[in-house]
Design brief:
It is a single chain. Helix content is about 45%, strand content about 15%. It is an alpha/beta fold and about 325 residues long. Helix 1 links the parallel strand 1 (about 5) and strand 2. Bound molecules: nicotinamide-adenine-dinucleotide and serine (SER).
Length: about 325
């Protein structure tokens, strides 16, 4: 049975990934690293926890030793729009935190999953069917930390056989924890407004396409990649994956099937728009499909239906 440490376990992905990992591997075999509130309800009662600032190597190493950890999911990061306002912090958490995880993983022979992002691409990258191996010249500090993270993770694998694996997540849509300050957050926020019967101010222009994914697919991706047969992996850091690509109008029109009176107005956020304009429209995820059988299960229609069902139960 695996012994897992999740760093940044109380964020948008970590909240749900920790629950899923505990349901697979057992609640006492998954240690949830926490850093800052808010903490999910019942967080400290649900299984082992540890305060971990990813910028400090000792708490990571101490926790790995104490619980005999063999796999680390490193989710600590400052997301794209927030990092642009505090680039130094974005760098210290994104790069400093990863380097600490890599060194601990090397010393204690742990597998390490650290998500990359569509943010690892930039304005020079081919926008449609973006290949697995292509130009990566991002113009955000977030993207720079992701490219560095991909390269240095491959370096640790090639030089010291550290079992590093990663995916380039698209914008993630979910209904448990709120997103943490990214460019794609609008695709979550719009659902909360629709279900509450409020007008949604969209920060991203009509016609701006980005890759997106529903959280259940994102969790499958992380776990299935970490369970994949290493002999089949030609790539490691990091795989293109996607589930859908849409612009705000397509999402709005899909939600209007459930709420015909729902109103969306545009109030463009210049920073988020600038970032979104630099990211691809739609990734090609063939390598993930071929090397570890990646496939998504939710499209725009099924994701929208499930989001609305779940949020109605949560909010009303
Ligand atoms: P989030 O902002 O919701 O959560 C990040 C977590 O990191 C939080 O729990 C926060 O408390 C923690 N954290 C911040 N600074 C820390 C530090 N110094 N030490 C330890 N923990 C710290 O982010 P998320 O959406 O859950 O993203 C997780 C990972 O997935 C990140 O690497 C992110 O770049 C990547 N990703 C997310 C998305 C998405 O749409 N959510 C898309 C692409 C990639
Ligand atoms: N959802 C993330 C962001 O917008 C993508 O990495 O920052």
């Amino acid at each position: 049975m695996k012994k897992i440490l999740v760093i940044g376990s109380t964020g948008q992905i970590g909240t749900e990934l920790s629950m899923r990992l505990r349901s697979i591997y057992g609640e006492n075999n998954v240690v949830c690293g926490y850093y800052a509130p808010p903490y999910p309800e019942g967080f400290f009662e649900a299984g082992p926890t540890a305060y971990i600032d990813a910028q400090q190597i000792n708490p990571i190493a101490d926790t790995v030793r104490k619980y005999n950890i063999d796999t680390i999911y490193n989710l600590a990061a400052i997301l794209s729009a927030t990092a642009e306002k505090n680039p130094k912090l974005g760098w210290e958490v994104g790069v400093g935190g990863l380097m600490n995880c890599l060194d601990v993983a090397r010393e204690y022979k742990c597998g390490l999953f650290t998500p990359s992002s569509i943010g690892a691409f930039g304005p020079d990258t081919p926008k449609d069917h973006t290949p697995q191996d292509t130009i990566q010249r991002p113009n955000t500090i977030y993207g720079i930390t992701k490219v560095l993270g991909e390269l240095v993770s491959d370096y640790y694998f090639k030089h010291w056989q550290v079992d590093t694996r990663s995916v380039r997540y698209p914008g993630l849509i979910s209904n448990v924890a709120l997103p943490g300050g990214g460019t794609t957050d609008y695709a979550v926020e719009i659902f909360y407004k629709a279900v509450k019967g409020e007008v949604f101010e969209c920060p991203i222009q009509a016609g701006t396409f980005m890759d997106m994914m529903y959280m259940p697919d994102a969790l499958d991706a992380a776990i299935n990649l970490m369970e994949a047969n290493p002999a089949r992996l030609v790539h490691r850091n990091a795989f293109n994956i996607t589930a859908m690509s849409f612009d705000p109008e397509m999402l709005y029109n899909e939600i209007k099937k459930y709420y015909p009176d729902f109103q969306m107005v545009y109030n463009i956020h210049p920073l988020k728009q600038h970032i979104a304009d630099s990211w691809p429209n739609h990734l090609d995820d063939t390598c993930a499909r071929e090397e570890w059988d990646w496939q998504s299960h939710y499209n725009l229609e099924s994701m929208t239906k499930d989001m609305i069902d779940k949020l109605k139960r949560k909010l009303l």
